[in-house]
Amino acid sequence: MKVIRKLITLLLAIVFGFWLATTGILHGTIVGEWLETVVNIIPSPSEWTDFSRSTNTSLHMNTQGDLLDISKESDQSGSTSPLKTSEVDYQVVEERIFVLLNNLRQEQGLNNLKKNDILKKAADLRAKETETSFSHTRPNGKNPFTVFEENGLAYPYRVVGENLGMATYYLDEKEMAELLFNGWVESEGHYENMVRPEYEEIGIGVHYDGEFLYATQMFGTPI
Q1: From the record, what ranges are coiled-coil (predicted)?
Q2: Are 220 and 119 in contact (CB under 8 A)?
Q3: 134-180 pLDDT tens trace
Q4: What is the DSSP letter of 201?
């Protein structure tokens, strides 16, 4: 009981001290200045509320996925110095990504995606654009799917999506394809795009600028 009484007395003393500090009765005295300092240090209830709101963030994933940039990660390893080559067989890279993608979908009990020439052309254009602006926003400031209408690519769609990736070129074509694909698998947004059951078709584009390899997956389902 004595302990409880002491705690109650201490609590009342603290409350009374805060009241004295806020009323300014002891303003100008040593005790008053000390109490005012303590009150100013401790956040008010409204400040606590504002802080809790600022820390509650949400991440909205859309059909554009995230951005996969593993170029810096590659450069940090002694065995991943850029492989200087003037030619890259894009078809080998694209075909390997295509096979890995459908293998992944089969593992999830999903339909295989079919190649589509229009999606392929759009993916090629987007892969080249990402050298200038590695973003789901095109160099002209528009969303990635305006690439269809602005380039005369007729693809009326019910749903469409895009994955982007880039990496320092330091392996052969198949290994680079696997590097990029594994990066997409490990990224939540990219992975969700690759296993979306709504998709029926795919176009894959690759671009090499002499140092970095850029890859685009353009998913779609026509009307």
Answers
A1: none
A2: yes
A3: 999 999 999 999 999 999 999 999 999 999 999 999 999 999 999 99
A4: E
Question: How many beta carbons lie within 10 A of that of residue 124, not counting itself?
Answer: 20
φ, ψ at 110 (rounded to 5°): -105, 165
Partners of 219 in beta bridges: 161, 202
CA gap 136, 164 in Å, rounded: 8
In this structure, what is the dihedral angle of CA atoms 134, 139, 141, 147, given to the nearest 10 degrees?
Answer: -100
CA end-to-end span of the chain, whole Å?
Answer: 78
* Segments making up each domain of the chain, as ranges: 1-35, 90-222
Q: How far apart are CA 168 and CA 82, in angstroms?
A: 6
Mean pLDDT of 111-139: 96
The residues with which 67 forms a beta bridge, in sequence order, are: 164
Element (H, E) at 203: strand 201-208
Concatenate the DSSP letters of all residues of 146-176 into one string: HHHHHTT----EEEEEEEEEEEE--S-HHHH
